[in-house]
Write a structure and sequence with these properties.
eight-stranded mixed sheet, 621 residues, nine-stranded mixed sheet, alpha/beta, Nucleotidyltransferase, domain 5, globular
Length: 621
C-alpha cells in the first residue's frame, strides 16, 4: 500500500524542524537513502543554515519565510505530500483541538501571542510562509495546549480575582500536549489496556519538562501553567518559584525584560549547575564530585518526585508512571533518583532493567519495574511529529468521511438515580418493584414513579427521580450546581464508572442507604447505532465537539463521547446546567459538519437554532 506523506513543520524562535512521514505507520520518507528530517538553525541570525543529515545549506541570516522558501522546494522534491501539520504552542481557551488553518485561525493565533510571546509568533511565521509556498494543501494547526483542555476548573484556575483572570485570560493551560497524548496512548497499547481504564502519570523530560496526570484518557492536571515556565526544573527555566522572590527582584531594580531572561534562559539546570543545561555534562561533573552539579540533579529529581506523588493523590492511585523526552528516555540516573521512595505507590524499580533500557523504532517501550511491582514503570519513545501528522491527516480527509445535514436530537438529562435490586428493597420495602412512569428515548429505559432524597455533607436534593430498569451498581448522576448544594466534589465520568467517586446517603419511604461511592457528573455523550456511526463517520469512544447557536448564547461543548450500540437510539445527552447555559429548547438538533467550516472568534458558526458536531482529531484506537 502506498504511503500517505504529511509534512510536519515546527517553528521555534530561532529554528525550524521539518519532517515528512506516514502518520499511519510512522515511516519517515527517504530520498537517496537520506531520511527527510531536517532542521534550520539560527533563523534570522548570521550563520543560519539548513542541515539534512550530513548535507548542509548556508542561508545567510534568512528569516522564517525566506528560509522555508529556500529549503522546501528541494526538501520535498519527488515527494507528494497530502497535508501539512504545524505545531502551535499556545491555543488559549479558543482551540481545544487541532483545526484546519484559514485567515481567521491565523488571526486568532496571532492574538494569542500575548500568552506565548516567545513561541506563537515564530509558529505563525512558519504557517504563513508554508501556506504561501504550498497553497493547494490543507494546513492544520496542532496545539500544545489542546490535550489539556479537559482540565477541571479546580486544576486550571489560579487564586486571583475573577475580573483579572477574565480580562487577561489568566489560567493554567498546560503544554507538551501531543507528547503526553502520544506516550499515554502508546503505554496503554503496551499494557494491552484501554486508555479509558487507566490512571497514568506521564513525565516529558527534556530541555522543557512537564508532568501530566492522565485519568482515563483525559488530562486532569499538568505542571506547566499559563506559560511553559511553571512546574518542573528545566534546562534553563526555573519552574516553580515563590512569587515573592520575583517581587523582591523587581523592587531591587531588575527590569521586566531582565527578569524574563533570568527565569527563562539563566535558571533551571543551567543556573543550578553553573555548567550549562546539557544533562550529560551535569551527570559527568556530579560523578566527579562537583557539588553544584549534584545539587542540580537533587533539585530536579526532588521536584519531579513531588509532582508524581501529588498527581497520584489527584488520580486516587496510579497504574503506570511513564518517562519520555530526551532526558526521560535516556537518563537512567534521573529515573533512578526520581523513583526512590515511591514504593508506597507500589512502584518498585528494577535497577538492571533501568540501566539497560534502550528504545528503538521496533521497541518504543521499555519496562523498568520489578515483576511484582503494582505500578508499571515505563520508558516510552515520544513521537510528537507523528502525533501532529496524524491530526493533520485526519482533518485533511474528514470531508470525504462525513455526510452533511444529518440531524442529532439533543436531550437534557436531569439529576437521577440508578439502583440495584437490593437497593430498591432497602429503600422501598421488601419485594418492591420499580413502577414505570414514562418511557425514555433509549430503548428499554424509563422514568419511575419512585423518587428519593439525596443527602450530602452540606445539603440535600429532594424528590430525585429513579430510572429503570435496575442495574448492577448504584449510581447518582447530578449537575455541577447540585454537587455544590450537596457539598461534594463529583468527578466527570462515563455512566457506570463510579470507582473512587464520592458517596452520598439515599433516603426512601422504607429506609435509607449510604453509598460509599457512586456520585458522578455524567460526561456529555451521544448515543448512536452502528448505522448512525457509519453515516456520521465516527466510531465508538471517539470524542467530538458540538457548537451551538441559540440566539445569543453560543458556546462549544467539547469532550463529547460517542457511544455506539445496536441497543441505542440516536440522541445527545447533556445535563441541566449545560442545557441552561446554551438555552437549548425542545426539538433542537445537531448536524455533523467537517472541520473546515467558518470560524468567528474561535467558534464554528452554525445555522440559527441548530447545533453542529465536529470530530476531534484525538483518537484512542
Amino acid at each position: 500500500m502506498a504511503n500517505t506523506w504529511v509534512l510536519v513543520i515546527n517553528c521555534g524562535s530561532s529554528s525550524i524542524k521539518l519532517d515528512v512521514l506516514d502518520p499511519s505507520s510512522g515511516e519517515r520518507a527517504k530520498r537517496g537513502g537520506r531520511t527527510l528530517s531536517g532542521k534550520v538553525e539560527r533563523v534570522g541570525k548570521p550563520g543560519c543554515r539548513f542541515a539534512l543529515g550530513e548535507h548542509a545549506v548556508e542561508l545567510d541570516s534568512a528569516d522564517h519565510a525566506a528560509a522555508l522558501a529556500r529549503v522546501l522546494p528541494e526538501f520535498l522534491e519527488g515527494i507528494e505530500v497530502a497535508a501539512v501539520g504545524h505545531r502551535v504552542v499556545h491555543g488559549g481557551a479558543r482551540f481545544n483541538r487541532a483545526v484546519r488553518i484559514d485567515e481567521a485561525v491565523e488571526t486568532q493565533i496571532d492574538e494569542l501571542s500575548k500568552l506565548a510571546p516567545l513561541h506563537n509568533p515564530p509558529n505563525l511565521a512558519g504557517i504563513r510562509a508554508a501556506r504561501s509556498l504550498l497553497p493547494s494543501l490543507p494546513h492544520v494547526a496542532v496545539f500544545d495546549t489542546a490535550f489539556h483542555s479537559t482540565l477541571p476548573t479546580r486544576a486550571k484556575e489560579y487564586a486571583l480575582p475573577a475580573k483579572l483572570r477574565e480580562e487577561h485570560g489568566i489560567r493554567r493551560y498546560g503544554f507538551h500536549g501531543p507528547s503526553h497524548r502520544w506516550v499515554a496512548t502508546t503505554a496503554a497499547a503496551h499494557l494491552k489496556s484501554d486508555l479509558r481504564d487507566l490512571r497514568l502519570i506521564t513525565c516529558h523530560l527534556g530541555n522543557g519538562a512537564s508532568v501530566c496526570a492522565v485519568e482515563y484518557g483525559r488530562s486532569i492536571d499538568t505542571s506547566m501553567g499559563m506559560t511553559p515556565l511553571e512546574g518542573l526544573v528545566m534546562g534553563t527555566r526555573s519552574g516553580d518559584v515563590d512569587p515573592g522572590v520575583l517581587l523582591e527582584l523587581l523592587r531591587q531594580g531588575t527590569s521586566v525584560d531582565e527578569l524574563d531572561d533570568l527565569l527563562n534562559r539563566q535558571s533551571g539546570l543551567a543556573g543550578l549547575s553553573g555548567v550549562g543545561n546539557d544533562l550529560r555534562d551535569i551527570e559527568a561533573r556530579a560523578a566527579e564530585g562537583d557539588e553544584a552539579c549534584r545539587l542540580a540533579l537533587q533539585v530536579f529529581t526532588h521536584r519531579l518526585r513531588k509532582y508524581i506523588g501529588a498527581y497520584a493523590a489527584v488520580l486516587g492511585g496510579v497504574d503506570a508512571i511513564v518517562f519520555t523526552g530526551g532526558i526521560g528516555e535516556n537518563s537512567a540516573l534521573i529515573r533512578h533518583r526520581t523513583l526512590q521512595r515511591l514504593e508506597f505507590l507500589g512502584a518498585r524499580l528494577d535497577e538492571d532493567k533501568n540501566r539497560d533500557a534502550k528504545l528503538s523504532a521496533e521497541a518504543p517501550v521499555a519496562e523498568i519495574h520489578e515483576a511484582h511491582s503494582r505500578t508499571h514503570l515505563l520508558v516510552v519513545a515520544t513521537d510528537e511529529a507523528r502525533a501532529i501528522a496524524q491530526d493533520a491527516a485526519h482533518l485533511a480527509k474528514l470531508d470525504d468521511q462525513v455526510e452533511r445535514g444529518l440531524s442529532i436530537p439533543i436531550a437534557i438529562s436531569a439529576r437521577h438515580i440508578h439502583l440495584t435490586d437490593e437497593a430498591v428493597e432497602a429503600l422501598f420495602g421488601e419485594g418492591h418493584q420499580l413502577t414505570p412512569r414514562k418511557e425514555l428515548s433509549q430503548p428499554g429505559q424509563y422514568a419511575c414513579e419512585e423518587t428519593l432524597t439525596v443527602v450530602g455533607p452540606k445539603g440535600q436534593l429532594d424528590r430525585v427521580r429513579v430510572l429503570g430498569p435496575t442495574r448492577g451498581k448504584n449510581q447518582v448522576e447530578v449537575a455541577r450546581t447540585d454537587e455544590f448544594k450537596l457539598g461534594v466534589d463529583a468527578p466527570v465520568r462515563d455512566s457506570g464508572d463510579t470507582k473512587d467517586s464520592p458517596g452520598v446517603t439515599l433516603i426512601g419511604p422504607k429506609g435509607s442507604l449510604t453509598l460509599e461511592s457512586g456520585l458522578i457528573c455524567a460526561r456529555r455523550h451521544i448515543h448512536m447505532t452502528p448505522a448512525d456511526a457509519e453515516r456520521f463517520g465516527v466510531k465508538n469512544k471517539d470524542v467530538v465537539e458540538v457548537a451551538i447557536d441559540s440566539e445569543g448564547r453560543d458556546l462549544v461543548f467539547g469532550d463529547v463521547l460517542i457511544r455506539v450500540s445496536d441497543k441505542y437510539h440516536l440522541e445527545m445527552h447533556i445535563d441541566t446546567d449545560e442545557g441552561n447555559a446554551a438555552e437549548i429548547t425542545p426539538g433542537m438538533g445537531a448536524a455533523m459538519l467537517p472541520d473546515n467550516e467558518t470560524f468567528q472568534d474561535g467558534m464554528l458558526i452554525p445555522t440559527k437554532g441548530t447545533a453542529r458536531l465536529r470530530l476531534r482529531s484525538t483518537r484512542f484506537d
